[in-house]
Design brief:
The protein has one domain: 3-Layer(aba) Sandwich (Hypothetical Protein Ychn, Chain: A), CATH 3.40.1260.10. Helices cover about 45% and strands about 20% of the residues. It is built from five helices and five strands. A five-stranded parallel beta sheet has the order 4-3-2-1-5, sandwiched between helices. The longest helix is centred in the N-terminal third of the chain and has 23 residues, at about 1-25.
Length: about 140
């Protein structure tokens, strides 16, 4: 019983040290690719909220790319999105918003129609795959 308690206490100490190390390591950059393909504007707002929350946790240790394709593309169309100011402000902080050129072609959307801070990628799904192959964490929005 005494050995079991000692082993448990040692395990808890090790876990505690790991958590502290994860929260205090200033050189770790968390890379997250967010895939958004929903026309649901609540999902769009959820993406903005997730980015803001992650930015609070790791203010100088975060790299995010939001890849938008399919029915979500209006999120990045300046005349159709209610989140233009949020996208512009987050872009100034280094968050990358990418529109899928395949989807743009499908819906007749030009680069000029997008929020000025938005980038384009040839394939939204392809971009997500490339990021994952580079070790980025994956977050899917718009279920």
């Amino acid at each position: 019983m005494k050995n079991t308690l000692l082993l448990f206490a040692f395990g808890m100490l090790c876990c505690s040290a790991t958590v502290v190390a994860q929260n205090t390591t200033p050189t770790t950059t968390h890379k997250v690719v967010v895939q958004l393909n929903s026309a649901d504007t609540a999902a769009w707002g959820g993406v903005i909220g997730n980015i803001k929350n992650l930015s609070k946790i790791w203010p100088d240790q975060l790299q995010i790319e939001v890849v938008v394709h399919g029915r979500a593309l209006d999120f990045l169309v300046a005349s159709k999105s209610h989140l233009v100011n949020d996208v512009e402000q987050l872009s100034k902080k280094g968050i990358v918003f990418s529109a899928c050129e395949n989807t743009m072609g499908k819906y007749g959307i030009t680069k000029q129609m997008l929020i000025p801070a938005v980038f384009t990628v040839p394939s939204g799904v392809g971009e997500v795959i490339l990021k994952q192959e580079q070790g980025w964490s994956y977050l899917r929005a718009g279920y």
